[in-house]
Amino acid sequence: MAVHEWGEHSRLAWPSQGPDVSTKLNLSAPITLTWEIIRNEDWTELDLWWHGAFAGSSTLGYELEANMSMPRAGEQYVYEWNPASVREGLAKSTGKLSADRDYYFTAKLHPSNSTAGETVYSEKYEVEDKALVSSSASAAGSLWGLVLSSLAVSVALL
Predict the structure, then answer these.
(1) What is d(CA 22, CA 51) in angstroms, rounded to the nearest whole number?
(2) What is the span of the domain harbouring residue 150?
(3) CB neighbour burial string for 48-84, b if at least 16 within 10 angstroms, e if fewer
(4) For the chain, which end, N or C, has fewer CB atoms within 10 Å of the first or last residue's CB respectively?
C-alpha cells in the first residue's frame, strides 16, 4: 500500500486493498479500486483517472470520474470501474498497448468547486487483453524465425 502525505492537510492510502499490483489488470472485466482516507481536512472531492502507454512510447489517459465526494477520514472507499468504453475506444485505435508495467491510476484531491489540489499516483500495473496488448514475445519469435530461416538457407548453400 502506498501512503501519500501532504503536511497536515491530507493523507491517503492508495490502493489499500485493490487491485493487487502482482496481477495484470483485465480490461475485459470490471476492476475494483479500494483505498482509505487516513486524514482528510482540506480535500473534499477527487477526480479519478487511468493512465497508460501504447507500445512505442505514446501515452494515454482516461478520466474515470470527476468531483467524487471523498469519504470521511478512516473510511474505506470502493470504486468499481468497468473499462468497456475505454476498451472500445482503444480497439478503434491503430496502436497496440504496451505489454510493460506502464498503467496506473491517479486521484486528484481538491476542495469543492476548485481544480487546485494534489495528485496521488497508484503503483504501476500490467494489463491483459489479447486483442489490445502488444505481444513482445510474438515479435521476438518472428525475428528468431527469420534469423533461423536465413541460417538454414546459408547452410544449404554451402
Answers:
(1) 18
(2) 2-157
(3) bbbbbbbbeeeebeeebeeeeebeeeeeebebebebe
(4) C
Whole-number Å distance between alpha carbons of 157 and 115:
69
CATH code, domain carrying 53: 2.60.40
21-42: pLDDT as tens digits: 788 999 999 998 887 766 666 7
Our count of domains for the chain comes to 1
Q: Which residue, chain included where needed, has cell 534469423?
A: 147
